[in-house]
Amino acid sequence: MIPYVQPGTSYQAIAAGGSHNLALKSNGSVVAWGSNRSGESSVPSGLPGVLAVAAGGYHSLALKSNGTVVAWGLNSYGQSTVPSNLGRVIAIAAGNYHSLALASNETVVAWGNYPFGMNTVPANLTGVVAIAAGGNHSLALKSDGTVVGWGDNFYGETTVPANLTGIIAISVGFGHSLVLQSDGTLVAWGANSASQTMVPANLTGVIAVAAGGFHGLALQSDLTVVAWGDNCCGESTVPTNLAGVIAIAAGGLHSLALQSDGTVVAWGTNGSGQSTVPATLTNVVAIAAGYYSSLALQSDGTVVAWGDNSSGQSTVPANLTGVIAIAAGGHHSLALQSDGTVLAWGNNSSGESTVPANLNGVIAIAAGYDFSLALRSDGTVAAWGSNFHGQSTVPANLTGVIAIAAGVGQSLALRCDGTVVAWGYNANGLSTVPPNLTGVIALAAGGSNLALVGIGLPPALCISLTSTNIQVAWPAAAVGYRLEVTAALSPPVAWNPVASIANLFSNRYELPLPLGSGAQFFRLVNP
Question: pTM for the full model?
Answer without folding.
Answer: 0.51
